[in-house]
Design brief:
Structural class: alpha/beta
Radius of gyration: 29 Å
Largest sheet: 8 strands, mixed
Distance between the termini: 69 Å
Helix content: 40-55%
Number of helices: 28
Shape: globular
Strand content: 5-15%
Low-confidence stretches: none
Mean pLDDT: 92
Length: 699
């Protein structure tokens, strides 16, 4: 065996039987993925030109799981389109040449192999993993990106159109076992010492036997249907490539087109916004509360939860899952025990899916103590009340419980809209009172709105944020006000849907334009699901209502009087059968036809009305920064994901165009009144962001 160093990037080892091994040196980690691939292929080409070399296997650069992907550098490199395109052109030229040798190129995977590293592995003819730990896949597609290095075209070659589309758009990470079962990894060996025999077996296997096994084909057929967001730039790019592929486009031409689309996608406003919100925004919020948790003087080991309904049960489960001792209290023990059963149900499912060991489930359930006695709460470090959304009920409860809590014990109200300042007046310690707005279902929804009342002190805020950190949630800090932030902007979405119906727009068109705009659920379906009386209940908390809100209020009152309160009553905007199965919408007798422009404007109204009120929240100090609004809108209310959030949406539309649209919609109600500050910013052609940086300066 002879060993040489090339370019200070590789160790190249020549083994028996014409097999070459290439291992990256540490210096290679400082290079971009494209340069790493180019350097490796250059060396591979040199060696494959030698007659006695039959195969090359290369060890992928090892990733450290603690190192976060550098998406900012990825976008910057994509913006240097000329340089990147030249690198990709050279890679493609070398790959064509290497495949012409008809010799085996084999990738060896260590640990996690995701993103560009997985793209690197796909260039090989065969993929071997060392050990059973680690994940493979393209997590970056969650942000609308197209996988790099021509991966989609390569996967179409390897595995066909449907499976390639799934891998390039689903943002799923597969563990080693699953990756092997569906054939995206070909073989697993225990250690490096097993590579030689594995390599030899592969090289002596006839090509016909190297095709997919029947088990792999069956496992792929059992995969659930693909779930995509058709608005994501990466999805659109894959669909364009599939169209060309089906039309018989040469694979090399297809790869060139993919490189061009990769640059377009990576530098698009939507992708930058999604990365900014869903990656850097989330990580920034987590980092902030981790730092607070590490410096907070109060340790949290026990939480008290009052109310064992859906919200309280979910909070209790999340607390126990986080390793905290939880006291779950309700008016009688049977109700509290029923709430604890939620934790049993959720954890049962996780155990059945091998996502939770059974002994961990046992310990989790032991950490939840049920009670009907308020005295059991008095040792808690933070108490969270999650009873029904009623001011009288909550204030009576707060008054009774807070009188027996220590002054340093934080007391939080889980509420969607009741003013924290008003609730705090019932507390014996208003400075220790705060709002924590969890979203349902608590175990699946990541956001928590932390609402600061007029008397809330810093220590209570820090304790609440520490609690959010321990529960593994993502916070946005908002100031007290009617509807806070998420409920307030969401109710504008619902209001606009009702306003359209009152204007004569058929309900099916309202729901259609919502889905076409990218909302996961139309406003009328939301109203049926939450129940119409709840919408009125929230409006009752607002100090005043403008004309459009009054009109919506009166219309909902009329529907309620007719018994059409939503899904609970099997009657609402939608029709339901006797079993509660949803059917068609209740349509007018002579629905109007709409032009394409009218349909487009209806969709804009649903998007814009939420963003416009979000700006009012920002300018009035309800939220501090645009990123808080973007996080809250995307994670809290399902605002159109491909925009990256409400303020990213305004930037993508262009602030002057946005203001012009709002002016055109002014006749639809006071919800379209434009704040003077927004007009001033429009005159300056202001943008809330410059790439990944905020331009907002509240002073």
């Amino acid at each position: 065996m002879s060993t040489s160093i090339y370019h200070k990037l590789f160790t190249v080892s020549q083994h028996d039987h014409g097999v070459l091994e290439i291992t990256f040196e540490p210096d290679a980690k400082t290079m971009s993925p494209a340069h790493q691939v180019l350097a490796l292929l250059t060396v591979a080409d040199e060696w494959f030109g030698q007659e006695d070399i039959r195969a090359i296997y290369y060890h992928l650069p090892q990733l450290e799981s603690t190192i976060q992907p550098d998406y900012i550098s990825l976008v910057k490199s994509a913006k240097k389109e000329k340089d990147l395109s030249e690198n990709l052109r050279q890679i493609q030229t070398l790959m064509e040449k290497i495949r012409g040798y008809r010799k085996a190129l084999i990738a060896v995977l260590h640990g996690d192999c995701v993103g560009d590293n997985f793209a690197f592995a796909l260039l090989a003819d065969y993929r071997i993993t060392i050990g059973s730990e680690g994940f493979v896949g393209f997590p970056e597609t969650a942000f609308g990106l197209l996988p790099g290095l021509g991966s989609f075209s390569r996967m179409v070659q390897l595995w066909g159109e449907d499976f390639a589309f799934r891998l390039a758009t689903q943002a799923l990470l597969y563990n080693r076992r699953d990756a092997l079962s569906i054939g995206i990894i070909d073989q697993e060996v225990e250690g490096i010492g097993d590579l030689s025999s594995s390599m030899s077996a592969y090289l002596h296997t006839p090509e016909a036997q190297q095709e997919l096994s029947s088990d792999v084909k069956k496992n792929r057929e059992l995969l659930p249907p693909s779930r995509i967001n058709a608005h994501f730039p990466g999805v659109i790019a894959c669909q364009k490539l599939l169209t060309k592929y089906k039309a018989g486009t040469d694979i090399n031409v297809l790869i060139k087109e993919e490189h061009h689309l990769y640059v377009q996608v990576a530098t698009s406003d939507q992708v930058v916004a999604m990365i900014r919100t869903n990656y850097y925004g989330i990580n920034g919020a987590k980092q902030q509360i981790q730092e607070i948790s590490e410096t907070n003087a109060r340790d949290i080991g026990q939480i008290g939860v009052i109310g064992a309904g859906m919200m309280g049960s979910g909070i209790a489960y999340e607390g126990a899952r986080a390793g905290l001792q939880v006291t779950l209290l309700d008016t009688d023990l049977s109700k509290a025990n029923h709430g604890k059963n939620y934790a049993q149900k959720v954890s049962d499912k996780l155990v059945s899916q091998d996502k939770m060991p059974s002994n961990e489930q046992v310990n989790l359930l032991k950490r939840i103590t049920t009670s009907a006695n308020f005295t059991d709460l008095y040792t808690a470090d933070i108490v969270i009340e999650a009873v029904f959304e009623d001011m009288n009920l909550k204030t009576a409860l707060i008054a009774e419980v807070s009188s027996n809590l220590g002054k340093s014990t934080a007391f939080a109200s889980n509420t969607t809209s009741l003013p924290i300042g008003q609730l705090a007046q019932a507390s014996q310690n208003p400075s220790s009172f705060i709002g924590l707005h969890f979203f349902s279902p608590v175990d699946r929804m990541p956001l928590v709105e932390v609402i600061i009342g007029p008397d809330t002190d810093e220590a209570t805020k820090d304790t609440a944020l520490q609690c959010v950190h321990l529960l593994g949630k993502i916070p946005i800090v908002v100031q007290d006000g009617p509807g806070f932030f998420t409920s307030r902007i969401f109710f504008n979405y619902l209001l606009e849907g009702i306003t359209m119906v009152l204007e004569g727009v058929s309900p099916s068109v309202v729901e259609l334009v919502a889905r076409k705009a990218g909302f996961p659920v139309g406003p009328l379906l939301v109203l049926d699901e939450i129940s119409l009386p709840l919408m009125l209940h929230v409006y009752d908390q607002f100090p005043t209502l403008h004309d459009a809100q009054y009109a919506a209020y009166a219309y909902l009152e009329q529907m309620i009087a007719e018994g059409r309160i939503g899904r609970k009553a099997n009657a609402g905007f939608y029709q339901y059968d006797e079993h509660g199965k949803r059917g068609n919408l209740n349509e007018p007798l002579n629905p109007k036809d709409y032009t394409d422009q009218e349909i487009q404007d209806l969709g804009k109204r649903l998007l814009h009305v939420v963003a416009l009120d979000a700006f009012r929240c920002l300018s009035s100090g309800i939220i501090a920064q645009p990123i808080d609004g973007d996080l809250g809108s995307v994670l809290g209310i399902g605002y159109v994901p491909h925009t990256g959030g409400v303020f990213a949406h305004i930037d993508q539309v262009g602030i002057a165009t946005f203001v012009g649209d709002c002016e055109r919609f002014a006749s639809h109600g006071a919800q379209w009144e434009i704040p003077p500050q927004l007009r001033d910013l429009s005159a300056q052609n202001f943008a809330f962001y410059d790439g990944f940086q905020s331009n907002w300066n509240p002073s």
